[in-house]
Amino acid sequence: MKSKKFAIIVAGGSGSRMQSETPKQFLPLGEKTIIEHTIQKFLDHDAELQLVVVIPEAHLDLWKSLSKKITKNERLTQAFGGATRYHSVSNGLKCIEANEGDLVAIHDAVRPLFSNDLIERCFVAASQDGNAIPATALVETIRKLVPAAKSSEWVDRGEYRAIQTPQTFQYDILKDAYNQLFSDTFTDDASVVEAMGVKVNLVEGERNNIKITTQEDLKLARLLILS
Asked: Residue 182's domain is classified under what CATH number?
C-alpha cells in the first residue's frame, strides 16, 4: 500500500528580530506572503498530500486575510500553536489521520525557498530509513566559547552540520516521540525523536533554504525569489 504524505508547517514566529509589527511569516515576498510561498510548495509537490498549518491563535486574523486559495484549500487544516515548537507540532499531529508507514514532513513557515527535489529527497529517505533531516556543511570557520577561561577555541567545522527543515519521519516514530514529556533539549523535531533513542539520518540540504528571521534574511530572500 502506498504511504500517505502529510506536512505540518509551523508558523509560530513573531516580528521581533525582524523589527516588524507583522509576524515574519506574514510579510510579503514578491506577490505572496512568506507563508503562502511555503504552503504552495507542499501543495504542488503531491496532489494527495495533506497539510496542517499551525499558527498562534493571536494571528488568526492575519491567517484569514490570506488568499482563500490557501486558507480554504480542502487539503489544508489550520491548528493553533502551543507554548513551544514541541507543543505546536504536537497540536499539528493531532489533526492528521495517519497510519504506520505514512510519512510526515515538518517545516518552518519562514523557509519558503526550498525545492521540490528537497521535499522528495526527504520523503524517500524517511520511507527507507525512518527519518530524514536535511543538513548542509558549514563554510565558515567556527570557534567554541570557553566561558571558564574567558576565551574560545578552534573546532573542526567538518564535524558539524547546519540543520534545516523539512524534517521528515515515518508517522509511528513521530507519534511515539511526541508522547514523551517535554524537555528543554527539544529544539527541533530531530532532537525529540533522538531523545527516544532513534538514530537521526541526515540528507543533503540546500544553501537557498534559508530561515527568514532578520531584515537581512528578507532582503536576500527577495533577491533569490526573483532569480
From this structure: 3.90.550.10
Quote the pTM value.
0.95
- What 3-state class would DSSP assign to 110? coil
Q: How far apart are CA 205 and CA 135, in angstroms?
A: 5
Three-state SS for 37?
helix
Q: What is the pLDDT along the chain (227 residues), one digit of tens a residue?
A: 689 999 999 998 665 666 678 899 999 999 999 999 999 999 999 999 999 999 999 999 999 999 999 999 999 999 999 999 999 999 999 999 999 999 999 999 999 999 999 999 999 999 999 999 999 999 999 999 999 988 999 999 999 999 999 999 999 999 999 999 999 999 999 999 999 999 999 999 999 999 999 999 999 999 998 77
* Domain, as residue range, for 89: 5-226
d(CA 117, CA 123): 10
Structurally, the chain folds into a number of domains equal to: 1
Sign of CA dihedral 129, 131, 137, 142: negative
Instruction: Return the C-alpha torsion angle 132, 121, 6, 23, nearest 10.
Output: 80
